[in-house]
Specification:
The protein has 365 residues and is α/β, with parallel strands linked by helices. It contains 14 helices and 13 strands. The longest helix has 31 residues.
């Protein structure tokens, strides 16, 4: 599907450490494929226990997980909206992504210099917010000028567009991101069209020291308080621990390390799953002796659209979908037994695919 998450933050907050841990975590998830397109783009495996359970029951020749593309975006500094530092490149990269993972530094370390001289995650967040808001103000002002010119003809849609854009501009000028601007269907359509930076879904990643993981510290508590009411989630990660886990060569070594730390799984696994949810994605499976595979679709996708993710011909010539719900497959342990129990349904074009569905498509081209 080509969906991308972008890791953003000020310099020296742990973005690249986290990126490296995320991408190598994906590389070692059993024998799953891993690809890096450029030094700062990686494909990360979405960990999914359901895929492992299906593979254990079916014992296929191949197991293929689904993945999300992740972009490590250069550290931003004050003045980026005016092109300071790598500002223009940074903002251009953010425009390309579908969701933002905003890393904030919540650890003290004299060996890691803070770009602004002291550790203050709330201030750091505000610096980045402001730069993104300033860029969005520019975008909205240009669009507003265009609508004002068009509205002179008296076209009602253009007149309403001027009203929506004026209200949005005021909202941004009050240092509020576009994602918490109240919209109706009409203003939402205008908002989506502008691809505003602050309209993208966001997950705040608080990077803490080893002693503050997983319960947090004074800095994370201050940060949580500062974002109350914002439509965003927070996750705590210790990039140092994640880097140590990622550096281990075998699955067994990682398991031992996690047990010694009292952890069930690496923090990056939670982060990957959260990113997946942030993008409003769900997984369906195809399962047979040859291959058990996870496929990514947007929540709410109908059966033909889900089939099209495999191949466009499947969507064009869609006839029907044979569907098994995941809990039924696990309960009955094979496709044959599911069918015998009458738990496989045959669905048409209007069926909305559910997270975890096991699908078999019938098509004719």
């Amino acid at each position: 599907m080509g969906l991308k998450c972008g890791i953003v933050g000020l310099p020296n907050v742990g973005k690249s450490t986290l990126f490296n841990a995320l991408t190598s975590a994906g590389a070692l998830a059993a024998n799953y494929p891993f690809a890096t397109k450029e030094p700062n783009i990686g494909m990360i495996i979405v960990p999914d226990e359901r895929l492992d359970q299906l593979a254990a029951l079916i014992n296929p020749r191949n197991v293929l997980p689904t993945n999300v593309e992740i972009l490590d975006i250069a550290g931003l500094i004050k003045g980026a909206s005016k092109g300071e530092g790598l500002g223009n490149q940074f903002l251009g990269n953010i425009r390309e992504v579908d969701a933002i993972l905003h890393v904030v530094r919540c650890f003290e370390d004299d060996n890691v210099v803070h770009v602004d001289g002291s550790v203050n995650p709330v201030r750091d967040k505000e610096i980045i917010d402001l730069e993104l808001i300033l860029k969005d103000i520019e975008t909205v002002e240009k669009r507003l000028d265009k609508y004002k010119k068009q509205a002179k003809s008296g076209n009602k849609e253009d007149v309403r567009a001027v009203e929506h854009c004026t209200a949005l501009l005021k909202h941004l000028e009050n240092s509020q991101p576009a994602r918490n601007f109240d919209t109706d269907d009409e203003s939402k359509a205008i908002l989506v069209e502008m691809m505003l930076l602050t309209d993208k879904p966001i997950l705040y990643v608080c990077n803490v020291d080893e002693n503050s993981f997983p319960d947090g510290n004074k800095l994370t508590r201050e940060f949580e308080k500062a974002i109350e009411g914002e439509p965003a989630e927070i996750i705590l990660i210790c990039a140092g621990i994640e880097a140590d886990i990622a550096a281990l060569d075998s699955v067994e070594e990682r398991k031992e390390f996690l047990e010694a730390m009292g952890l069930v799984e690496p923090g990056v696994n939670r982060l990957i799953r959260k990113s997946y949810q942030l993008l409003n994605l769900v997984t369906y499976f195809t399962a047979g002796e040859k291959e058990v595979r996870a496929w990514t679709i947007t929540r709410g996708t109908k059966a033909p659209g889900a089939a099209g993710v495999i191949h466009s011909d499947f969507e064009k010539g869609f006839i029907r979908a044979e569907v098994i719900h995941y809990p039924d497959f696990i309960h009955y342990k094979s496709e044959a037994q599911v069918k015998e129990a009458g738990k496989m349904s045959v669905e048409g074009k209007e069926y909305t695919v559910l997270d975890g569905d096991i699908m078999h498509f019938r098509f004719n081209v």
